[in-house]
Amino acid sequence: MPSAPFPEIARVDARDKVLGRTLYAADVPQTDPLHAMLVPAAITRGRLVSLDPGVAGRVPGVVRVLTSDDFPVPPEPDPDGPPPPPPTLTAQIAYFGQPVALVVAESLEAAIEGAEALAASATYEAEGFVAVLGADSPREEVEPRRVGDAEAALAAAATRIEDLYEIPVQHHNPIELIATSVRLSEGRLIIDEPQQGVDIARFGVAGALQMDPEAITVRSAYIGGAFGQKGFAQRQTAIVARAAILTGRPVKLVTPRGQLFHLTYHRPASRHQVRLGADAGGRLTGLAYDAVQENTPGGAFAAADYHEGAGRLYGIENYSGTAADVFVDRHAPGYMRGTHPYGACFAIESALDELAIASGRDPVEIRLANDTATDPLTGNPLSARHLNACLREGARRFGWERRTAETASMWAEDGSIIGMGVASGIFPAAVAAGEVTLRVSANGTTRLIASGHEMGQGIRTMLANTILQQLDVDPDGIEIVLGDTDASPQFMTAGQWGTTSIVSATADAAARLAAAYAELAGERTPAGNLNVRLARLRRPYLEVKGRQKGPGQDASALEEFRQRGFPLAGPEYPQFTSMSHIAHFAEVHVEPTTRRVRVARMVSIVDCGRVISPRTARSQVYGGVVWAIGHTLGEGSEIDPRFGGVLNDDLADYVVAVNADIGEIDVGFIDEPDPMISDVGAKGLGELTMVGASAAIANAIRHATGRRIRKLPIRVDDLL
C-alpha cells in the first residue's frame, strides 16, 4: 500500500552547510597539491599545428605541461559496443575553447600565467565551420511519433493556431565551478569531482586512460548545483587524472567560469513549430509539433524526446510529432533543468493561450476541458494524473476569478499594467532499479549506503525522513553515504528519478530492518529507541539490504545495477504510463512607458505523487520558479557566428535572476501517491518545477500588453 503523508523535518545537512563544514570537491584537503589550468583552443574547427611548452616551462613554479602526446591513442569506436570515453587532449579541434594543453604548477597563479603564455604560442590550421543554428547547417531527421490523423483533425478544426517559438542557448551557472581533484593512493586513482554520475565518470576515465576501472575511485559527496551540467563524464577529468599519474602528486583543477561556457553541457538553441486545433466546443482535436535543435553528430541530447511529454500533456487523440538535429561546430549540448519538456511546454502552452483567446475561452477552463485518463501515445492508462486538481487549486490560491479577459484592463496602484497567465507542465516519471544497505547500531548511529548524489535538492533529507517514518532511531545519528564508487554502485542522479528509485529502496530496507528486529526481540520489549534497544539486547547492530525495481523489471535489473549498469524504466511501463504534472500561475506588472516587466507573484501547484520531504520539496519548486523567471526575462548565451564562442561568458553579462527580481512565490502539492509506480508512490519533482513556468509568464505578458512574444528571453525591447 502507498505510504502515509510524510511529516516535515529540517534539512539534515543544513547546519554543516551554514557553518562551512560541508566539503565540496575543491575543498577536499590534499597533501602538497599541484594546481592546473587548461589551455583552450582559439579556433572553432581545424587543427593545432604547434605549441611551445618551453614558454610555459620558463614561468617560475610551472612543473609540467601536458599535450596530446601524453595520452594513449584512443581505441577505434565499436558501433555495437558501449559509447567511447570522452576525449582528452587532441590536436584536432572540434569547437572553440576545446582544451589543447594542461599546465601544472606549484601555485594557481603560476598555472594561469603558464597557460596564458602557452596559449599565445599556439598556431592553428583553421577550417570552415557552422557555429549557430541556420539553414546552411547539416540536418538529420529523427523517427516521427504519430497517433491518429493530425492533418485531418487540423483541417476540420473550428479554431487553429500556427506559430513558431524559439528557445536560445542557455548555460548552467551554479555557484560551484567544475572542480577536479585527483591523487594516487597505493596504486589507486582517487578522484573528487562534482558529479551526478560517479560510476559514469569512473568508466569514462578508465576508457580514456586505458586503465582498469577497479583501480579508480570517484567521489562526489556534495555538489554545489548541477541539474544536468555535471551529469556525464567531463573531458577534464581524465586530463587531470593523467597529470596526477605523470607527476606523482595530487593535482587540482578549478575551471574558470569563462571556460565553462565552452566546455560543459548546456541547453541547445531550438525552434518549435506548433499547429494546434480545437472544435467548436473547445476540445483540442489535433496537434502537429515539430522541434528542431542544435546538436553535434552523436550527441546524447536526443531530439525525439521533445515528444515524450508534449504528446501527453492533454487528451489530444491526433498527434504528429517530428524532430530534427541541426549540427553545429560547438561543444555538444546536454541536459539542463526541465530538459525537453521545458521547450515543448513553452511552445504548446503559449499556443494554447493563443487558441483560448482566439476562441473566446478562459485559459484555465480550456485546460480543464482537455484532461485525459489515457496516454494518447500508447493507449495505456495514465497512472495518478492530477493536473486538473493542480489547475483548480492554483486558480483558487491565485485568485484567477479576479482576472478580466481584456488586454491591459488591470492596473496596479503604482500605475503598472497587470497581466495574469497560466500554463501547465509535464515530466516523465522514471524509475531506476537499485539497492541500498541500512545498518542500525547499538552505539546510536544509523548508516545508509545508497546510490545517489546530493546537489542541493535534499536527497539526504528525503532518505532520513524515509528511515524515520518506519524506524525509531536517533535522528542525530543518521549518516547517509552517497556518491562514492567504493561504497556502492551509483546510477546517475538526473531526470528526477532519484527520489522514486532510492527512496523506495530505502523504505524497503527500513521495513526489512523492522522485521529483523522483531524476530530478534521476540517477546522481549526493552525500553528506548531502536539503537538503545539493540544495546540492551547486546546486539552490536542489525544490517539489511533494501531493493527497488521499476514496474515491469525483473531480478536481472538488480543484477545489472550490481554490475554498475543503469537499469532505467519508464515513463512507458508495460501496463501504464506515469508522468508528473504542475500548474503555474503568473502575475506580471509591466511599466507602461519603459515596458520593464516584473514578476510580482507566482503560484505553482504540483502533482509529483507522494511528497517525501515537504521542506526540501518546496525548496525545489522555489528554485525552479526562480530559475524559470531568469530564463524567461534574462538568460541567453550570445553565440558569435564569426568565431563560435560565447560573448557573454561571465556573470556580469549572462543575466541571471537575483533577489530583487523575485516577487511572491506560493507553492502547493496535491500529495496523492501514485500506487502503480512504487509502494511509496513518489514520482519525482526536480525537473518538473521549471516546465511551463516560462509560458505562464509569457501568457501574463500577453494579457498585460497585447504583445505575444514567441521567443526567449523576453526583454524590454521586445515590448516597445
Explain how this protein is built.
The chain has 720 residues and is an alpha+beta fold. It folds into three domains: 25-128 and 173-263, Aldehyde oxidase/xanthine dehydrogenase, molybdopterin binding domain (Aldehyde Oxidoreductase, domain 4), CATH 3.30.365; 145-158 and 162-169 and 266-429 and 574-719, Aldehyde oxidase/xanthine dehydrogenase, molybdopterin binding domain (Aldehyde Oxidoreductase, domain 4), CATH 3.30.365.10; 431-567, 2-Layer Sandwich (Aldehyde Oxidoreductase, domain 4). The strands form seven sheets. Strands 3-5-1-14-11-12-13 form a seven-stranded mixed β-sheet, with helices on both faces. Strands 7, 8, 9, 16, 17 and 18 form a six-stranded mixed β-sheet that branches. Strand 23, helix 12 (459-470) and strand 24 form a beta-alpha-beta unit.
Task: Produce a short descriptive summary.
By secondary structure, this protein is α+β, with helices and mostly antiparallel strands.
